[in-house]
Amino acid sequence: MGGASVLPTGFWTGCGGTKAVETEVCVYGATASGVMAAVSAVKEGCRVLLIEPSRWLGGMTGGGLMHIDWGQKDAVGGMTRQILKDENDDATYRKIFLGLVREYSIPVIYEHRLESVRKVEGRIDSITLEYAPPDKLGCPIGRARRSEAVRVTAPIFIDCSYEGDLMAKSGVGYTYGRESAEQYGESLGGVAPNMAEYEIDPYVTPGEPKSGYLPLLQDRVIGPVGSADKLTMGYGFRWKFTLEKEQMPIGLIGNYDPEMFEIYRRAFRSGLNLAGSRIRKLGTKEPEQGHIYAMGSGNLSRSLLAPTVFGANAGYPDGNWEERSKIWKFHQIFFSGMTHFLRTDPWARSDLKEKAQKIGFQRGPFDETEGWPHQLYVREARRMVAAYVVTQKDMEGKTDPSDSVALASYGVDDWPYAMFPLNGKIALNGGMYSRVCLDEAHRGIYKIPYRSITPKKEECGNLLVPVCCSASHVAMTSIRMEPVWMMLGESAGVAAAMAMRNRSAVQEIGDSALSEKLRERGQILERPT
After folding, report:
1. Spatial CA neighbour of 117 closest among 90, 155, 153, 162
2. 16-27 confidence digits (pLDDT tens)
3. Is the pTM of this model over 0.70?
4. What secondary structure letter does DSSP report for 193?
5. Residue among 145, 183, 128, 111 at smallest CA distance from 383
6. Which of 101, 211, 280, 329 could be bridged to 205 by S-S, CB 3.0 to 4.6 A?
7. Alpha-carbon gap, residue 8 to 500, rounded angstroms
8. Of 147, 132, 111, nearest to 18 (Cα)?
């Protein structure tokens, strides 16, 4: 946590009334993108305030993501290329970000989140924050401890949160879930085919639908392939495990309910293969074995045997903090319960039981939260709908926007969207794409235009949105990588400073002037040849 706060947290909570702060550029969300935006604006001569709902800087970069999802390294430029190193660990990234805000004297308000937005004549005039410190395991609390704690006034705002709350509360158009394939003419758009269907009876009493569905299943009907829905790829954490004796225990959270894991008990009892599948090249499907404990990356698996419940995050993108807090905590409860189940249940698979009995959290990465990562991996939430929507066509190399502010290159990469009953079985929907390149000629590299990080002018003239930017779901499965969001954050910071100096709307700063500034900063705006 920090040492760079505007004033000690106690000041905000210990005095009566709403505290007022004025700045020139207000960055909401100290994700890696947010830190880049703040530093970039300061380098351009602005006074900047950074607001972070948690106690930590960097979001997923330092919150579990050590392995860098580069895509193509030569498409990564600016400060991002200088900061990201394959050898860095989570604690190192957090120290780097803290060092940056100290070096550039950027005040940070921790443990406060957006409560409301005041707009005047199509611009954000001020935002009001509530005091809501996360719990001891890093999970956001549902109800704030204090309402109307701080009011921030600024000419320019940047929303670098994973959720896009400032964007949404500012009246900017947005969406979430999967658009239909027809909407943007995307062959990969909309509902995807099911990844797998498992021969596990979904009913509490086998064969009796009236008995209800087993715990963890979502009672939903998936639409036809290519149709639109409001489901989002699975969330989870990037844990740091160890089998060494020096470890932090993975203990139970709350009361253990053995019935919660009946799906897995039935699968183990019948010796069922729980493998899923993935697609790394269109037209070719390969099996993916499941796991609970991925040593090193701490990642999920495209399988029923995974350290998360795919689809349990459906209410998160557009939910309030009470709903999000429950979803976040459920992910922690599920994993702790799954570990206890594997350790103690007589039907647990022997190899999984042996590992579960030895496994623990590494000391060092997340000691403040008892070994639990303090950031839920919100792979995708809301997406702005702006004048330019990045789509599959951009990823296929069929576009060449003139107002590029960063490049992306990771390929289509998603995770399952639902775990649901289907015809007496249990199914996982979608989530098979793994770094699928759609444009071999350009090695999957494509441009992200400035118009996709700025709202329509009539909706808001002084807001930039580099994280929940304007993209289709298909495109966001690629854009969502931390290096891309960091580069977009840096570009947003430069643009914010230009708009502030010019006293203009962010949509009116001029593409050529912005491009010149970004190139001076080492940003790569054209696809490498």
Report:
1. 153
2. 689 999 999 999
3. yes
4. P
5. 183
6. 211
7. 28
8. 147
